[in-house]
Specification:
Blueprint (H helix, E strand, L loop, with lengths): L2 H16 L3 H13 L1 H23 L3 H5 L3 H23 L17 H17 L1 H10 L10 H26 L2 H9 L1 H27 L1
Length: about 210
Amino acid sequence: MDILSWSKIVLLCFLGAASPGPSLALVSANTLARGRAYGIATSLGHAVGIGLWALLTAIGLAKVVVATPAAVLIAAQLLGACLVSYIGFRIISTKPSPSGSKIPLPISSSNTLIQGAVEGLLISVLNPKIALFFLAIFSHFVERNMGWTATGLLSITAASIDAGWYVAVTLTLTKASMISLLQMHSPTIMKISGTFLILIGLYLFCNIVLSTL
């Protein structure tokens, strides 16, 4: 692939990562609810899923994945929608600290960070919006018969751009100038973030169900 083709793919990956949707809502909510480390773990897990989608698209298997039996595909999509709603309920049900809202953002243990990474991975793999992006848009910018080196580089590029964007979102939400504001309005922010995720999950769920009727 020439430099122009790579430039188009880089721009496309950035626009895809920066577009609003369940992924951005999830990373933001996880960051606000559980802190910077958890948000970064979610971002990196999400990037792994994006890299996997890019790899499958480059080697022509993305269509095969989507062409799996309808029941299996629908079940996977419903699982993703339920996961988004579950995280929303979890955030809403988080109890405030007895010391009040002016507390440092929580620090996550290694086991909890793995949970964040898994959540990010599952959202990127099961999100219908991401599948549509790679099949309907990204696939047109991928050259046929790419070598394994170019294919691997393409996957790493997509994952790196995605990770860079969401890590940047996480760092922005947890920088010093934002912490005091977030702490001051922590209960309200948690309720809004959780409710937003629940609504997104319900929207995805309804769309999937209606598309099967």
